[in-house]
Amino acid sequence: MTPPSSHGKSFIIAAPTSGSGKTLITLGLLRALRNSGKIVRSAKVGPDYIDPGFHAAASGAPCFNLDLWAMGENACRALLSQQAQNADLVIVEGVMGLFDGPQGADGSTADLAAKLGLPVVLVVDCAHQAQSIAALVHGFTTFRKDVHIAGLILNRVKSDRHEALLTEALRAAPPVLAVMRQSDSVHMPSRHLGLVQAQENQQLETLIESAASGVTRETILDNLFRIGTEITNHASAVVLPPPAQRITVARDQAFGFAYPHLMQGWKSQGAEISTFSPLNDEAPDATAEFLFLPGGYPELHAGRIADNTRFLDGMRTFPGTIYGECGGYMVLGQGLTDADGNRHSMAGLLPLETSFAKRRLHLGYRQLENLAGPFPKTMRGHEFHYSTAELSGAAEPLFKATTAAGEDLGSIGQRIGRVMGSYAHIIAVAA
User: Fold this and answer.
1) Exposed, middle or buried: residue 229 (CB in 10 Å: 0-12, 13-18, 19+)?
2) Do residues 389 and 383 touch, judged by C-beta distance below 8 A?
3) Among 10, 75, 338, 423, which is least packed by CB within 10 angstroms?
4) pLDDT, tens digit, 9 for 90 and up, residues 162-182
């Protein structure tokens, strides 16, 4: 294996729409390159907890999020540079369609590509089109002059004749790097917040190796290095300061939504981080000063959580600050009603009742002005959940919130003494 340069190359995998297959192709590329002896790393555009877990399984290394709206350009550059250090290639998977992002603000995959000077490989779902692909690709390649589409991957191609029609129509387009055939045997299960988490997928290795086999068969992997842009070193950006010296974090299938860049950033600033599993009825480290309950899927395990007295009593007697995000926030409340209408008692530390019996989508970026928590004055994050909430008592608000477009959402979250939480997931200090 050729030793990697001090900083490797990078490009973005994007698509015209969600559901085009870019995640599965990204996993296949990461594993195919890893199997060939290359050192590969990855990143995911936007506020996504689930895809990075699959990336890490495919590449063998942590995946970081690059969120232009929440982090700012400097932090994105710094994280990409960190991923590229001592690696051959960093593959960045885009979010939604190439040009989709927050209203009136930078944050799309195209915005990130333009700011960081990264070429784009466009994955096109060809299952229901033939010659019309030329018009679609022409539109995407000419829509923004500051975004360079360096190659195409044709996905879900049905036959040799279908391939011939597509490639003939694309003679004047960017080069076709791979033609992936339609296959019903490779499937990524999903649920209401996206894909089923990587640690829950019992067939994960089979899925990744199957994707890698298809990519290896259809792609000249060396061409990816010709497309990639070399990443240069970049000074570290401002990161969210740790809320305490000793931090204990819930981590299992119910509480899996903790951003790797935040955990690493806290460690790099000297914080000591321990983990525990509420699903295994483990109590938090009572010697820690700060307890972090991340989001996840507690609604799928609500009965089990309600029965885990060691975990719940450990939180009730925890001497330090307790902070919950989204799913963690729900567990801090009085009760959680699941999708079947069954109520389960939770920790009872905040006057909050949450329910999935009547689903309602809450989705969007949030600018957060800290009112009562151990955080910087202004931060950026996002909200993504289907539950409804009723406040059952008085509490101090935690944040004042606005959308990415500047719409005032009023105050959100709760704090009573040392216990606090909200539906918002913190990403970074506002740049």
Assistant:
1) middle
2) no
3) 338
4) 999 999 999 999 999 999 998
**Structural domain boundaries of the chain?**
9-230, 246-429
Rounded to whole angstroms, the Cα distance separating 430 from 37 reads 39
Q: Where are the alpha helices (DSSP H) in 240-387?
A: 260-268, 302-307, 309-316, 327-332
pLDDT tens column, 316-333: 999 999 999 999 999 999
Q: Are 292 and 301 in contact (CB under 8 A)?
A: no
Q: Which of 63, 76, 126, 326 is catalytic?
A: 326
Three-class DSSP category at 258 = coil
Please tell me whether the overall predicted TM-score, pTM, comes out greater than 0.90 for this model: yes
Give the relative orientation of helices 50-59 and 22-35 as an angle to the nearest 10 degrees: 20
Two tokens at 310?
A: 């060691």
The pairing of strands 335-337 and 343-345 is antiparallel
In this chain, the answer to whether the domains covering 9-230 and 246-429 adopt an identical fold is: yes
Cα 288 to Cα 246: distance, rounded to the nearest angstrom = 5
Coil, helix or strand for 76?
helix
Specify the amino acid at residue 327: G
Q: How far apart are CA 269 and CA 245, in angstroms?
A: 9
Q: Determine whether 326 is an active site residue.
A: yes
Mean pLDDT computed over 44-62 = 94
Task: Report DSSP state, residue 423.
Answer: S
Task: Return the C-alpha torsion angle 160, 165, 171, 176, nearest 10.
Answer: -40
> DSSP letter at 242?
P
Higher pLDDT, residue 203 or 163: 163
Alpha helices (H) along 219-361: 222-227, 260-268, 302-307, 309-316, 327-332
Backbone angles phi, psi at 275, to 5 degrees: -125, 160
CB-based contact 421:407 (threshold 8 Å): no
CATH class of segment(s) 9-230: alpha beta
Q: pLDDT digit string (tens) for 110-141?
A: 999 999 999 999 999 999 999 999 999 999 99
Q: Name 381's bridge partners.
A: 366, 426
SS3 (DSSP) at 74: helix
| CA dihedral of residues 251, 339, 17, 184 (deg, nearest 10) | 90
Query: What are the tens digits of pLDDT across the range 140-153?
Result: 999 999 999 999 99
**The two structure tokens encoding residue 72:** 């700012």
Closest CA to 218 of 226, 227, 210: 210
